[in-house]
Amino acid sequence: MTMAAMTKDRIGALCTIGPAAAFMVGIVGIPLFYILYVSFNGPHFSPSAYVMLLSSRLFFQSLWSTFETSILATVLSVLLGYPVAVHLARQPARRRALMMIMVLMPFWTSVLVKSYAFTIILGRRGIINTALSCVVGHKVALPLLFNKFSVVIGMANYLVPFVVFPVLASLLAIDPALGRAATLMGARPMRVFRQITLPLSLPGVIAGASSTFIISLGFFVVPALLGGRHDVMLANLVDFYTRETLDWPAAAAIGMCLLAVIGMCGFIATTLRKVRRV
Amino acid sequence: MNTAFTDKPACRIRYLTTGLACAVYGFLLVPTVIVMLISFGLIAGPSQGGGMHPTLRLYAEFLSSSAWMTSVWHSVFIACASMILSLGIGIPATYGLERFAFRGQNMIRGMLMTPLAVPSIIISLGIYFYFSAIGLINSFAGLVLAHTVYVTPYVIMTLAAGMRKIDPQLEFAAQLMGAGRQRVFWRVMLPQIRPSIIAGGLFALLMSFDEVVIAWFISGVQTETLPVRMYSSIQWEISPLIAVASTLLSAVSFFACLVASRVSPADGGDTV
What we know:
The complex is a heterodimer. By secondary structure, chain A is mostly helical. Helix content of chain A is 81%, strand content 0%. Chain A is built from 13 helices and no strands. Chain B: Belongs to the binding-protein-dependent transport system permease family.
């Protein structure tokens, strides 16, 4: 490309991308730096908010809870998403597109709708307890809501599609001749699955699991609506310090910690994927 | 016919995965269906007498409740404004990214995608601090700006997928015949990417209409959106009208999902 064309391209790029870039800098970039600024106590620089966090039991409790809940939700989502991906991969293309709606619909459904539904299904006088009462014959009130169980169920319900999409993509990339060849040579279906399907779909599983885990770390709505007082995650703690105690530096410092944790996990996930590819 | 499929253990495995998959489909879809049934009075909701006759009573109550309806109109207004604004900045930005060559292109592309990489709680917190400082908190302008930024990455992704699918030779031919860059864009490119624009606009509309975390932080009593009202309602009072609001939200999602899959049947999955 000639020099003049290069310059012309640069001007064109500036005119077209400029407005969007200005929006991103103005409404995401500056606020992100503003969090950092507030976390160090605004104009009077001091790391006091971070020092406070180091001695805060509530902070470490919710940090642990964030990891625990995210791991459980990720494992459950992979276990639920994998069979769906296998089932979809086996369908003929047109039927698959139609059945995808059963995964896409929940994907687009608001997390509020799902959380509300689970308060009704899992509540003390909810659908499951009422049904169990009918079966057993006397009143049953299993504590299914406002604990870790309901949070993990609610999160997995939201996250399953994030596992299905990448796993389905890697299952569809497997050459069907491999399975046929193995079967012709006498491999039982279980062995075909164990030695061909599963290893070759692993990149999809890793991609799905890592993105699911990272999304889980920042979850806010589900633990707030379905969790009890002991299931507070970092995102809820941010909200608590911003609105309830009005301690902005603390809220900002927790936000920075959450961002650091997510950034670290994202880095590990991308490195993991690169290592596997080599 | 492949012998593997008439083999007994193979059949057993097929049934097993089909069964498991159907159970998961149920797990994914049943919650929404239950909420819809409650809204039509077919199941008794919480804090409600056990009547089980189909009725539109809750819908009538919802439509006559000024608090709920106000929040619906707020959400509609914010979603429409964010959609127009995000298309307004997203279409040229995607064109620039796809049709110009310049240094730092990947960095700029990455920068435009930041709202995807940063969890919404962090974006909300930053915007909350920043808007408090510049006086945009609890304002429609603030909500529209925040939602625009939040949905723009999805708009750009959808548009980029559409632009990559069309044949660049057509634009080249138009240029050879003397059309300027602007004319090529309006007369050759835009008509070809119209489906992607519709799909991207719908995604923007739906995502803004559904968005709760950012709105929860920066909206106030005068600017409360439907999801924010639902969120606080689920937390504090569990009004049966939440079922109606939920059905409304699901209907919007269903409509958007349907139109999007009709407009671009192939990439319903990988644009998101």
